[in-house]
Amino acid sequence: MPLSGAYHARMAARRRTHLGDIELGVLSDLKSIPEYLREGGLARSAISLARMLDSGEIDKRDVPAMTRELRMLLAGLLDKAPRKGAKDGVDQVQDQLAARRAARNSV
Predict the structure, then answer these.
(1) Distance CA 45, CA 67 (A)
(2) Which of 6, 39, 50, 71 has the most other CB atoms within 10 Å of its CB?
(3) Domain boundaries, the chain
């Protein structure tokens, strides 16, 4: 059974005036990642799933699957975000070269 236009209008109005607990949590999590990831499709999908879960208008048997998908989306976004203070292979090579130069210059 397709959803009516009135349903969509009601949901759109509700979204603008009320943020649910799950959506607030997702938005809070998204604050910790760079803006270019927050504006992408994965982030938008996570927000959309959160809104659906907050609406309470989904079948209870779908909640675990949607929650799992939301968790996977957020984990994927966090994996794509650069780590603060973490060094990758390039940083390690640069540190080794700097140490060699410093040792050579001190002799």
Answers:
(1) 12
(2) 50
(3) 5-106
